[in-house]
Amino acid sequence: MAPTGGAVPDLPGLGKRPGFTRSAASGCCHPSTTKGMTMSMVMTPAVTGGVDTHADTHVAAALDGIGGLLGVPESTATPAGHARLPGWLEGFGTVCLVGIEGTGSYGAGLARHICAAGIGVVEAGRSDRQDRHRRGKSHPLDAVSAGRAGLSGRASGAPGGRDGEVEAIRALMVARRTARAQRTQAINQARALIITGPDDIRTRFTGQAAAELVAGLAALRPRPGSMVGYHTLLALRELGGGCGSIRCIRRSRWPVRRGCSTAAG
To answer: Would the pTM of this model clear 0.90, i.e. be above it?
Structure first.
């Protein structure tokens, strides 16, 4: 991903902010000395980034100190693509801030990588609706809007951090909520089979509480006989056994272990 300062795509109105002229002196100053102890100032432009994130690709935008567009590349949503983005932005100057749309979803990995590089990150949120109405919907426009939201201060929210103990608990709660929903669905399906099943099955299991019903279904040992009755009991046993394993997940107490490796096991 190389700087594309001279290859900015045709995006009307994005090259510079209306009513502003680009100043060659805007940016960060670093003193340097030359021969004869003459002091001079080397101007390093300040750069703000904006990123529109997606499942497979990200579209980034580099902006100057007044929001003028410097370049718009596209990169893959992979660790290699995340590693190239900070270097591409630094090719234009000193990176002060990056506004990312979707730091809690598709942009989570990119936000972590940029924060690790020592660059400030803000959650840009959705792009400006008025800009979309005037210029239409496009990924480069969304990336520029994210960068300008961070530059202007309109977007100042902290990125959705997908790390630490909160993220560990969130992952466990996802499994717990899913298990609860699956257990409820399995019990409802079992009751429906019992209601429409043979008389002996309906008489045996109708009116039982959920825990008693699950235990009774899991303990079934169907024997060949009536085709409908036998296969209904097989289905009920599978539903009861599934509820039992789901119940184990719901009742588990998972300690959040500090210092554990994040590598997949």
So the answer is: no
